[in-house]
């Protein structure tokens, strides 16, 4: 999962993106909030649209506090 803070039509939102092992986007979501609820919603949406993943992995970025 990747997140960015982007401006769309003059409004700042968080852009959450689920990626596969090749770095290709498999699903995305825009949210006004950066919290566990938003991250969970993206995971649920990605699983519903693409099936349950075999493996989850993430980098140990300093900002990764929700995982």
Task: Identify the notable features of this structure and list them briefly.
single chain, 67 residues, alpha+beta, three-stranded antiparallel sheet, 1 helix
List the helices and strands and how they pair.
Elements: E1 2-8, E2 11-19, E3 25-31, H1 36-50
Antiparallel strand pairs: 1-2, 2-3
Indicate the structural class: alpha+beta
The beta-strand count equals 3
Strand neighbour order, sheet with most strands: 1-2-3
Main sheet specs: 3 strands, antiparallel
Number of helices: 1
Helices and strands, in N-to-C order? EEEH
Q: Any low-confidence stretches, pLDDT <50, length ≥5?
A: none
**What number is the mean pLDDT?**
83
Helicity, in percent? 10-25%
What percent strand?
A: 25-35%
- The radius of gyration is 12 Å
**Which geometry do the CA atoms define?**
globular
Cα distance spanning the termini: 10 Å
Give an account of the 3D structure.
The protein has a three-stranded antiparallel beta sheet with strand order 1-2-3. The N and C termini lie close together (10 Å). The model has no long low-confidence stretch (mean pLDDT 83). With 67 residues, it is an alpha+beta fold. It has one helix spanning 36-50; strands at 2-8, 11-19, 25-31. β2 (11-19) and β3 form a beta hairpin.
In short, what is this structure?
Helices cover 22% and strands 34% of the residues. By secondary structure, the chain is an alpha+beta fold. The model has no long low-confidence stretch (mean pLDDT 83).
